[in-house]
Amino acid sequence: MEQVVFSKLVPEVYEWSYGNFGEQPSYRPLLGLAEEFGELLEALAHNDRAKIEDAIGDIAVFSMDYAAREKLDMSALDDPEYLGSQVAMNAVLNGPKDMVIEAMKYLGKINHAHLKSEQKIRVSEDHTKNKQSYLHKVTQAMYALSDMMGSDYASIVNGTWAEVSKRQWKKNAVNGAVNAA
Known about the structure:
Elements: H1 6-21, H2 27-45, H3 49-70, H4 80-83, H5 96-119, H6 127-149, H7 153-164
């Protein structure tokens, strides 16, 4: 069975991102996460399976870029049991939209921790630990959503990364294609 090896992919994603966008603030991949959740909701509204899977894969890539830039440890997600720990929630939720809402609650909590860390307030909270914990929950929710849809999360993420990793935005700012005319 195919697996996502976050401990291997996070540094690869960072290297690719750095090569394409240079040193950038970590809020940019966080903005990318929000963008992809919008695309995911739109795809769900149209019941477009291909676009749902595309958004799930892109959410994973932006999550890994954010994790690398924030130095968050994603290696616990290498364990399939830990990664799949939210699948049990599928039984109590009313479908894919509820799982996305659940994941978006965690995204909001990541943003909270990120913002308070940047503002240097709420210093009694462990912002780094919270960002990591909630990023894990977002990832687990996307795994559970894939499971709910009968899709293979590892195939989605690994396939998305195989495509995204080929893009070279510095060479082609239109679409990142390497062999653009």
